[in-house]
Hints:
Blueprint: E1 2-6, H1 10-22, E2 26-30, H2 33-42, E3 47-51, H3 59-68, E4 75-79, H4 84-93, E5 97-100, H5 105-119, E6 126-129, E7 132-135, E8 140-143, E9 146-147, H6 152-163, E10 169-170, H7 171-176, H8 189-201, E11 206-209, E12 213-216
Parallel strand pairs: 1-2, 1-3, 3-4, 4-5
Antiparallel strand pairs: 6-7, 7-8, 8-9, 10-12, 11-12
Helix pairs in contact: 1-5, 2-3, 6-8
Amino acid sequence: MRVLLVEDDSDLANGIARALRAENFAVDVAANGEDGGHLGATEAYDAAVLDLGLPKRDGISILTEWRASGRALPVLILTARDAWSDKVQGFKAGADDYLVKPFRVEELVMRLRALVRRAAGHAASIIQCGPVSFDAQTGQFEHDGLPLKLTAFEWRVLSCLILRKEIVVDRMDLLERVYEQDADVDSNSLEVIIGRLRRKIGPELIETVRGRGYRLTGESACD
Ligand code: CA
């Protein structure tokens, strides 16, 4: 999972990015409205955290443009503006949630997880696929009822696959949700991560769909 954070207060941005990375998310940080607007319009994200008062460009105009061009990613507005009319303006522009500064970063993480889960169409927080279960609200994986230890890259790939279980996830789409913007990416690194995941959860669960991508499937486990 990959999150876009548009925030010009560098201390706050660093704190949020650190907390999200500690929970295995990939995070791209933009410190002004122009860069943030561009990233959100051109890169793939599972969610965005958007400040309203930004240099170069206001958060509301960024969000309005994303929505007008069909970008559906969940957006959580983060701002010091707490007037009712500001919130209404944010939701009218297409926000999915709203958090007023100051806030606890734990609450931000919980709200983001809920947004990502709902955007993927899951009503309940536990998502099961064969022997693997994912608690979308805590980020914990289990395999056969036991906690599954994953690296950050493995977690990003597996969470992406289980949120879209039984659906083929495009290889490029998967890659985009695993690496931060300026990461050095080896051409076969996704295959390496998939290989490690197969050793941890069983080779039959992750199906390779030639020329397209990967599918997490619990079907074979039910035979
Ligand atoms: Ca600001």
